[in-house]
From TrEMBL:
Residues 454-530 form the AMP-binding enzyme C-terminal domain. This is Peptide arylation enzyme. GO terms for biological process: fatty acid metabolic process. PANTHER family: ACYL-COA SYNTHETASE (PTHR43201), MEDIUM-CHAIN ACYL-COA LIGASE ACSF2, MITOCHONDRIAL (PTHR43201:SF5). The lineage of its organism: Bacteria, Bacillati, Bacillota, Clostridia, Eubacteriales. Belongs to the ATP-dependent AMP-binding enzyme family. Keywords: Ligase. Residues 34-403 form the AMP-dependent synthetase/ligase domain.
Amino acid sequence: MLQGCVPWPEEYAKYYREQGYWEDKTLSEVLDLSINKHGSKEALVFNKMRLSYTQLGEIIDRLAYQFLQIGLKPLDRVVIQLPNGPEFIYSYFALIKIGVIPILALAPHRKGEISHFIKFSGTVGYIIPDIYRKFNYIAMAREIKNLNQKLKYVFVSGSSPSEFISLNKLLEAPIDKKEIQETLAKYRPDPDEVALMVLSGGTTALPKMIPRTHNDYVCITKYASRVGRFDEHTRMLVTLPIAHNYMVCSPGFQGVLFSGGKVVISPGTDINTIFSLVEKEQITFLSVAPPIITNWLKSNILSHYNYSSIKVVQTGGARLAPELRAQVRERFGCFVMESYGSGEGVLNMVRLDASEHAILNSSGKPVCPADETKIIDENGNELPDGETGELLIRGPYTIRGYYNSPALNAVAFTPDGFYRMGDRCRKDKDGYIYFESRIKELINRGGEKISCEEIETLIFAHPKVKAVCLVAVPDEVYGEKACACVQLNPGEELSFEELIKFLMTCNLAKFKLPEKLLIIDEFPMTASGKVLKRKLKEIAVEQSN
């Protein structure tokens, strides 16, 4: 296994194989089985582009071959930072096919985060768009490449400068199909090897790298697809950021393609774009976050569209309130499937045959029978059903450690391999999990996770700031927004605009920026000298109201 990664103990790996949870197939092999089975059937739609399974397979193989010719080799790392579009899917599967490890970055990540990913992982390649949402990724890539000597290859989707490699030209270059097949046949990865890395929500200073193997990622995708009842008739619309683990394998586009269904990628997130595609493509499955649901329910535009094809609306990223679940079900006439998990390999989903109480209130239950969950108290004692404590989970697709992070792993995982979710939950007799609150200091802005520590560290560097705490304040649309509570040095003044201007120089993703500033004379403290964040949050909420 890639150095710096933690393998499953031998006895667990043996058990997962014997029980069929691990099939010893690579992600590419599972996709190829689907391609061979569904050949001429439509697989991928984006704007006017429509690809069959055979065509998709040929594009992936062509790109995988071209990556090899350029010099990429197994276990190299390549950061993919592409917006929603077919190029993401081509690049993702092409790299995986030849054993190169894609690191899935989000489009809003900026120089600070991307430089960290590249340096920390020893990345040799970087795939970007030319410009997206008015941001120049080429200019950023130049700066990053100058800072990282190991970064050899920058691939550009769109208009590429001569110093970088055009992804479009790689996809259009003349090829010999026989030579491609003979070459690719030499590059089958080990199913126990790391296939890709996803990024954590970021409760530490910067997002952590989560290594996912072929065996574990095939497992989670297949079991999630079974719960979602995916088959060749499934038609999924991709609206959320495609690089999120949620959109890749929970069940995600990967689950659709493994099942022979159709993936439709939306070019926009506005209601008209989404529901015109729902109507045109007869979409059956939507994966969304609560802020999107809230906007839909408030809109009068939906009456202009026929959305009767929708069978399931899957919600994730944050808990959807019971009353909103009921409203979605009534409005759309479909099943509302709450999902709760993380990129570390945790996935709970509500079953279609669940009780009414579980459908409206629970966060789902593990998708695989081999998943082990337990709720513990502050002393590590396991609690009975119905009592609230910290959720721990272990299973065939739950990682045993972050990449190259032994100190962090000692805190995030128990000695016997359970992952600490950092959430307070309770469990019922049927195994359904009920999320109560977070333990970790994390702000959930519409499904995007903001590390309090990361932003506090940056704000503290401002010369006018004496102390800072970042807290969450409620928001009707996003669920939570970040409020910076700041104590200033004597005689200083700081405006919200000045703070944001300072943070923008830190190359920070925009979704992480505080949206409120509260100047505090003295922070409320405990007797031991710790900031009472709960009290501080109460003050911030009161001021917001």
